[in-house]
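Running co-folding for zinc ion.
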Amino acid sequence: MVENKKLIYRYLSEISDPEIPVINIVEMGVVRDVLFHGSKLEIKLTPTYSGCPAMDMIHQLVEEKLHSKGYNSVEVTLVYKPAWTTDWMSDETKQKLARYGIAPPLGKVASKKTLLNNEHVSCPQCGSKNTEMKSMFGSTACKALYVCKKCLEPFDYFKCI
Ligand SMILES: [Zn+2]
């Protein structure tokens, strides 16, 4: 087995987030560490959201990808502390989210607090801040459904923390 972390990260970056196909799981910041234990490879992942059903799929995709690259013994462990935060996404990743039509998390310590304070989320289509949350749950549990009052487009706001 080739003990090359960079290579493993490269393989992992070929896996798209099941919910957001334009972003891979490394960009999402869910890959915490890659460890080699003799003939076994351990991948540490931090779930983006405790109830996120995508995590099971990511778990499976990671195993399939690494098996296909010849790593037969792969263990995926989940790390809950420190909890994943949207701060682990790079600005570039947040921009990609916006281009995909999902309003990226607002600055630091976004999400839940933002939702509760009802701060304004910009519309990814026209940039207007005149938006309104329609539902805490958008197309998936990780997103809230917003609607833009200017262009009247509904959009998802990524609220994972
Ligand atoms: Zn708009």
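Result summary
Residues 108-118 have pLDDT under 50 and may be disordered.
Helices lie at 5-12, 54-68, 91-99, 111-117.
Job closed.
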